[in-house]
Amino acid sequence: RSPSAGETEALFVVTVRWEYTVIPHHHSRRFACVSERDEYLDLIQERATQRIMALPRDGGGRPLALDVLAQLLPLDADRRTELAAQVQLGVLALTDDRLRPTSVRLNRAVLDACRIVIGILAESEQLAPDRNPDSEAHRLHALLDGLAMHGLWDGGTDAGRRALDILDQHLGELGAPPA
User: Is 125 helix (H, G, I), strand (E, B) or coil?
Assistant: First the structure.
């Protein structure tokens, strides 16, 4: 029987907590339930994608771009859990090559979302023509990752509001030529 999404999520979280609080230096037990881990990570990516796809497209431009980025920040309990799992996987992937492809895939999905955001700005003529879209997507990805980590560690509503304000300011600056 295939476990439900809730069971998979619980198994993954319990596995990570148990292995890193009880036996932090025993790598052989890490992610014993590989299929459940992969299913859980697919669920994370699918939920973020569904939230982005459900956003209203009317208006577009900078407000839509900011709404897309907000789906990737830890602004509520679900998104905090998703980000915490992704961060845990990234840390584990540093010492376990079997986990690296999954971690890289999730990281690329965030970069792809940043490329979409830059495309939204370009399409609405809110990206300065002399800005390199690929470079700007990478810069945005780095900024988003940093703000997401701050939000994960801080956890308060002020952190989320601050992150959205910083991202909104950055998106606005992309409309001007680079300094």
Answer: coil
